[in-house]
Amino acid sequence: MSPNALIPSHRKPRRPSASSRALRAGVTGGFLTLAVTGATVPANAAEKPVAETQEMPTITTALATSAAKSADTAEQVAFNYERQALQDSAFSKASKAAEKHKAEAVKKAKAEAKKEAEEARKAKEAAQARASRSSERSTLSAPSTSTATGSTATLVSFLKAQLGKAYVLGATGSSAYDCSGLTQAAFKQVGIDLPRVSQDQSTAGTQVGLDNLQVGDILYWGSAGSAYHVGVYVGDGNFIGAQNSSTGIVERPLNYDMPTGAVRVL
User: Fold this and answer.
1) Could you give the CA distance from residue 97 to residue 136 in angstroms, rounded to a whole number?
2) Contact at 8 Å (CB) between 151 and 266?
3) Looking at the domain assignment, is residue 209 inside a domain?
4) Are 259 and 235 within one domain?
5) Pick from 186, 223, 206, 196: which is nearest to 265 by CA?
6) I need a surface site. Which of 4, 125, 211, 262 has the fewest CB within 10 A?
7) What is the pTM of this model?
């Protein structure tokens, strides 16, 4: 036995509190009766401060509501950004497509304009060709005096007498001629003094159309005032001229070498 075993304790015995007595009294029935609130709770329930049981639910709800609102706001902002990005992308695609269509339309319009211009050019050339052929037919079928009289008969007779003679550049007869030398010599037979060269002979008289030729008209090749060759119309669609050194002085139909114009001096 301990030496201190019989020494009485100086501590006062603890008196059970009212709540302890009430707890022991109520345990038998299985329920705890609290004098403060008068509520009956299960014996195994723990005591909690009144303030804690009243305030915590309020704080938790506020936080949850705030968090939910923040989440909704963030989601709305994200949605707005995504919608704006989609709109920008769609606008960019539409703009590029519009530019592409515009470029294609311009290209197509240019191609069509070029095609129309080419067709117009071909149509013009065809019309000119038809007009030229018509003019040639009119010239060949134009009435003419096959039997010349007076001055024209003398002129044609002289020209026919020179057929077969040589062409020599600068020659004026009587065994050889160049083109303007022959016409000058022929018109001297009827009292008309022509200039010496083709350029001047092409403007020596009145200009006439090839569809209105008469015997004795001077034909020229090239433009009036700068002609490079001349001959004389002798009727029936023919002319006589000193052509070149290979052929000499010959009679040929107009379509052998269609002249550019004609002048009338008789």
Assistant:
1) 58
2) yes
3) yes
4) yes
5) 206
6) 4
7) 0.47
